[in-house]
Amino acid sequence: MSLRITTLAERPEFASALWEMDHSWRVFMFNDPIADLFYPVAATDYADYVLVADDDTEPGRMVARGCMIPFPAGDLPDDGWDGVIRQGWLARKLDRPLDAVSALEATVRTDLLGTGVSPMMVAAMRDHAARLGFRELVAPVRPNQKHLEPHTPMTEYAFRSREDGLPHDAWLRVHVRAGGEIVKVAPRSMVIPGTLAEWREWTGLPFDRTGPVEVPGALSPVYCDVAQDHAVYIEPNVWVSHRLG
Q1: Quick check: 59 pLDDT over 90?
Q2: pLDDT band at 235 (very low <50, low <70, confident <90, very high)
Q3: What CATH class is the domain 3-189+236-243?
Q4: Nearest residue to 238 via CA among 140, 150, 105, 137
Q5: How many Cα atoms are found within 13 Å in the side-chain-facing hemisphere of 109?
Q6: Residues 47-84: b if buried by 16+ CB within 10 A, e if exposed
Q7: Which neighbouring-strand residues pair with 141?
Q8: Backbone phi, psi, residue 168, to 5°
Q9: Where are the beta strands (DSSP E) in 30-175?
Q10: How many Å apart are CA 110 and CA 10, to the nearest integer?
Q11: If pLDDT is split at 50, 70 and 90, which confidence band does 31 have?
């Protein structure tokens, strides 16, 4: 497979199909309210920060996308993914300096998972951030095997390594092999609240008992409060820093 990876600004014909690509994201993941500050305007306000990929076997059909957002430099926020989107959106509206850049996602078409596309997208995001003049690309990484251990603290999981010294988690390994360094945990990177009816719709689970609920695909349990008619998912991510030259 020979990938062609460009920005959405260079290939605006992909804008209409950007979110229609087959993916493996769980429904509840689309209900973080902070996402509304980026995704509805990604193809317009952030087209230079969205990468799209197709390959020579099916030109014009998306293989993967990668999203980034510029934000004000500073300490990496504990609210991770939510934090960089909120900070980036606010700084853009107030015309403040956007002198740092964060990856938000690298999504590969479902039928191509495990074929080596993910490392190519990470490398492309690194290269593009460098072309834009940034000296570092950061990422609030969502470890892709953590959902198998929802009760394990992320502070333990993130720094677990194999005998060869690489991270235990496959997605963290991709970042480290690309030159990234695990920095710290973002303990409340994504916060997804909802009524019990909403969580039932998103997951198909009953949400009829107060306490932690294991949800397929969630990195930590969702806390359910029946008396208050709400449940909240607080997802920890892992900050990774990619130094660029």
Answers
A1: no
A2: very high
A3: alpha beta
A4: 140
A5: 16
A6: bebbbbbbbeeeeeebbbbbbbbbbbeeebbebbbbbb
A7: 238
A8: -65, -40
A9: 50-55, 64-71, 100-108, 136-141
A10: 24
A11: very high
How far is the first Cα of the chain from the last one, in angstroms, to the nearest whole number? 28
Residue 7, token pair as written in the block: 């920005």
Q: Angle formed by the axes of helices 170-177 and 117-131, to 10°?
A: 40
What is the per-residue pLDDT for 57?
Answer: 85
Q: Model pTM?
A: 0.97
Element (H, E) at 171: helix 170-177
Q: What distance in Å separates the CA atoms of residue 167 and residue 165, rounded to the nearest whole number? A: 7
What gap in Å lies between CA 241 and CA 137, rounded to an integer? 6
AA letter at 166: L
